[in-house]
Amino acid sequence: MVRATPFLLLLFLALGAHGLQGTQQCNLAGHWKNDLGSNMTIYEVKGNGDFIGTYFTAVSASPSEIKESPMLGSQHLPYLSQPTFGFTVNWSFSDSITVFTGQCFVDEYGKEVLKTMWLLRSHAKKRGDDWEAT
Q: Which Gene Ontology terms cover its molecular function (predicted)?
């Protein structure tokens, strides 16, 4: 029985390592496009989880010409295979800011997909306009 214990431990470690190989890492850095045609580029995710990039929206209620806008974000640490994250876009062509929060998933075909929710805040001229500005 003494020899069986190391063998079972070795077998468990081998099976456990095989199971880990199937987990794919989702990398936020790169170019992303959503189903409405908006484009986002994340340049690099730093060791502390912070990242910068640009966002070009295909959808806007602003009468101004749409321009590429800077974004600043953070990925939750420690690095998980399918990380949660958040970022802020400071729109270059309007008086609003949007915050996004979401998670990066790897589907069964190995494709990386971002699922997000967002909240846009426009400038309000007075306190009474607060509710409709969000």
A: biotin binding
